[in-house]
Amino acid sequence: MKKILYPTDFSDAAENAFIHALHIADQLGASMITLHAFDKPDISNINLPPVLRDVYDSIDLEVFENYEDEIPILREIAITNGYYHVPMVHVLEEGAPVSAILRTANRNKVDLIVMGATGGGRVEQFFFGTVSGKTLEQAHCPVIVVPQSAAFDGIMDHLGVTTHFTPEDTIMVEGMRKFRDQIGAQMLHIIHIDTSSDSSGPAKLEAFCEQWKGDKKITAHCRPDNDVNDGIDNLIQKHNIDILGVLSERRSWFDEIFQKNRAKELVHHISTPIMVFQKEHLLNSKNHG
User: Model's pTM, two decimal places?
Assistant: First the structure.
């Protein structure tokens, strides 16, 4: 991972994510691209008076000037926290936030996206999803979503990853193992929440983890719980997990209404950064690897 994309809307949530992104970039020896997207209304079919047309045309310049004002603030945050040496390029992109993020990520072939958990009302979240929610589903690379309440204590020494024992989970664990070693974390916790009626979870987890029995920096936890989110949150708090790896997949609007996306649910349920791997990307990586 040599290129990290950090989208920002200059909110408190985005600023909190910036600290996490800087630390990860520092540990990986990676460069960062900061991105601010702005979306102008489409007025191509509207006949505006000349004065209003001038106002509309001036939006680009105003946004650019505002972004220029924010760049020194980002640099000051980096310097204050000891990350002045992390290389950064600042990009201003016109377009809807999600499309601008994905376009910038693809164009620059970034390896990781780190962003704050963006909000939106309940109706918006239910029918359309948030910017972070849509990004984590559609990105070509892993996405770390940082809740505003996620406090950074200066070190990321415990990582976690959830599993339902699928082949994609095996690939995801391998990705988290590599990430663990790259950022110098001490331990990777493999987590399974057992909702079965026959309590078969512990045996299945033991069998799943057999392939990593030689890795002394892996430990496994199975917790019986009918509420998966609560069970995960309990283990995160118990083992002081700094980043949790989860699996996501692209979904239609029909799926979004009638089925759950665990990754998007967790982003709004816990106060720990979530590292989301896209199922389609993992499968493509496996097929080409």
Answer: 0.84
